[in-house]
Design a protein that fits this description.
311 residues; HIT family, subunit A; 7 helices
């Protein structure tokens, strides 16, 4: 992967982001000095809420969906990682999910469905951008999951390159498909054994991930093989919403921060679309950080049983 070299110091623009690539590990980082100054608070105080209706008037609104308290507003980030015609090209949007400060984990199935529908529409727009080759859609809820604001919101990052990790995963996936003579979708569903299933309907299966890097990690996979979110139907997105909703009683009970995320490499048409749900309970120590081998103390079957018991 070709990564632009670090710009010469001193910077002419102290907020400019740039990419750095470790040729040994393959890691890519984005150094984004401008994000040092973004507000960092999870305290529920309206006067500090940058996503309140009044404060949204001062930001660049790209689109709105729905009306009233549940209106979803799409905005550009005031503290962006990406800059047009700079060292780090890309696209970044925030989806502000409603006008009130309330945890996403308290949303109803219908509200989660509305958010997924908006994500699907924004994904279509990102896929039409000729500059982009890869995107990630994600939610951070809670400080330990990277959430800097209490107001419910999701984000979409689009990149003009496919990260090495995703390329490596694609090569490994294709090699496994060749050996097993199974599709990526079939391989994913093979992991959904009876003892790991948390939710299932005619459209999706949600199951505790036996090789998750995070305790209580869950994979939500459509029963039908689809490459990305834009290929799903409205009924399938409703089922995805129901599957996410089933996970939240345990999350609320234990007050656990979490992420969920999915990606789309535009040139890889053989991907298996799925939502990864990652509670942020276990904290990685030096062993995990150096060896890259994660210790997960909760077997998938135990995680599934606890999710089911909390419903």
């Amino acid at each position: 992967m070709k990564i632009p070299s670090c710009p010469a110091f001193p910077f002419t623009d102290s907020s400019m982001s740039y990419l750095m690539h470790d040729p040994i590990t393959g890691d890519v980082i984005i150094v984004a000095p401008g994000r040092r100054y973004r507000p960092q608070t999870t305290v529920l105080r309206k006067k500090h809420d940058p996503f309140s209706p009044n404060n949204l008037k001062t930001q660049r609104v790209l689109d709105t969906y729905g009306k009233g308290l549940h209106r979803i507003t799409v905005i550009k980030n005031l503290y962006p990682v990406f800059h047009h015609n700079r060292s780090v090209e890309g696209r970044q949007e925030i989806l502000v999910e409603g006008t009130r400060v309330e945890p996403f984990s308290t949303f109803s199935v219908s509200r989660i469905h509305e958010v997924l529908d908006v994500m699907e529409d924004r994904c279509r727009i990102f896929r039409k951008d000729p500059q982009l080759k890869f995107m990630v859609v994600f939610k951070n809820e809670g400080k330990d999951a990277g959430g800097s604001q209490p107001h419910p919101h999701s984000q979409i990052f689009g990149l003009p390159f496919v990260p090495d990790r995703i390329r490596f995963m694609a090569r490994a996936r294709r090699a496994l498909q060749k050996r097993s003579r199974m599709s990526a979708h079939a391989l994913a569903l093979c992991e959904a054994t009876k003892a790991r299933i948390i939710y299932a309907d005619r459209n999706v299966i949600a199951f505790a991930d036996p090789v998750s890097r995070f305790s209580y990690g869950v994979r939500i996979v459509p029963r039908r093989s689809v490459d990305n979110l834009t290929k799903t139907t409205k009924h399938e997105r409703l089922s995805l919403a129901a599957a996410l909703h089933v996970l939240f009683p345990l999350i609320r009970e234990r007050k656990v921060p979490f992420n969920f995320y999915f990606h789309d490499a535009f040139g890889q048409t053989d991907e298996c679309f799925e939502i990864r749900f990652a509670p942020r309970i276990n904290i990685w120590g030096g062993f995990e950080l150096d060896a890259g081998v994660v210790v997960n103390p909760v077997p998938a079957e135990c995680a599934a049983a606890e999710y089911l018991a909390a419903r």
